[in-house]
Prior knowledge:
By secondary structure, the protein is an alpha/beta fold. It has 2 domains: 2-120 and 312-342, Alpha-Beta Complex (Quinone Oxidoreductase, Chain A, domain 1), CATH 3.90.180; 123-282, NAD(P)-binding Rossmann-like Domain (Rossmann fold, 3-Layer(aba) Sandwich), CATH 3.40.50. Helices cover 30% and strands 24% of the residues. It has helices spanning 41-48, 114-118, 121-133, 151-163, 176-181, 195-202, 218-225, 249-257, 266-272, 288-303, 323-331; strands at residues 2-5, 16-19, 29-39, 64-72, 84-88, 97-101, 105-107, 142-145, 166-170, 186-188, 208-213, 227-235, 275-278, 314-319, 338-342. The strands form 3 sheets. Strands 3, 4, 5, 6, 7, 14 and 15 form a 7-stranded mixed beta sheet that branches. Strand 9 (166-170), helix 5 and strand 10 form a beta-alpha-beta unit. It is globular and about 60 Å long.
Amino acid sequence: xRQVWIPRAGSPEVLELREAPDPLPAAGxxxxxxxxxxxxxxxxxxxxxxxxxxxxxxVVPGYEVAGRIDAVGDGVETDWIGRxxxxxxxxxxxxxxxxxxxxxxYARPExxxxxxxxxxxxxxxxxxxxxxxxxxxxxxxxVLVHSAGGGVGIAAVQLAKRIGARVIGTASASKHDFxxxxxxxxxxxxxxxDFEARVLxxxxxxxxxLVLDAVGGKSFKKSYRSLxxxxxxxxxxxxxxxxxxxxxxxxxxxxxxGTPWLQFTPLALMNANKGVFGVNLGHLWEEQxxxxxxxxxxxxxxxxxxxxxxxxxxxxxxxxxxAAEAHHYIQDRRNxxxxxxxx
Length: 343
């Protein structure tokens, strides 16, 4: 099999394609011949050496794949063999063969292409946790989605519109027309507009019920101030720490220093009638039953015969050996939707 490795922290060019023997599934595992692998911002932060959950380098990144099962380990029914699936991977997804626990694999709905299926797990589970599980978004409420043109952003927009919420999205101007076609009600160009001021203007000074923020640093402060009473701030990343294509300890320090460590105190939250919560899907491996329930709900959403059906948006695909180009593409903020590697 072929795998893409991060041998050391650095620019996208450090990524290496290596060959290795095909793995054998252990007890309770299935083996997948990968047809598409998802690329996520966590992979980029791992390559930069600033992602705390990354195992020691060298390491194969990757959290999600779609493909076909060709072997199973002890204790797994053989009728899995030959099934088309999508799956969560605890690293190792940048490969043309992976082994995962049976519980982490899901039959691919016939309504989804392989590429769409590979774009579902990380982005949509994260958005589902932010929007429905912890954000408790309701019909008629307003949500501010940062980086609305990214993978999680588009997933969040689709889930919010399905609920019947009003959506404000931040993105560069070139992405606004597409976002409006998805149902985004108001677009803010974060490159030249103050999103806090624009949100308050759009909502006539009241603010929004939910903000989804993966930017971090000072953005958390501004997002919190953009909340209406009873509003919730969902934090799920710190992309501001990865402004360049090489690790910058200065950017990391500035982002951490700008984080409102003292603002979200119990007394301040009580007095403001606001809530703050965090999401990290990579820390829910011990909650597989709950996550599987969310995934089954999302898969049901993809099967619906209505306008509310969700479908992952694929921005671009790259051959597995061009993983560096995929990382450049995302860091250049060119993607509208999901970026995938195709073995």
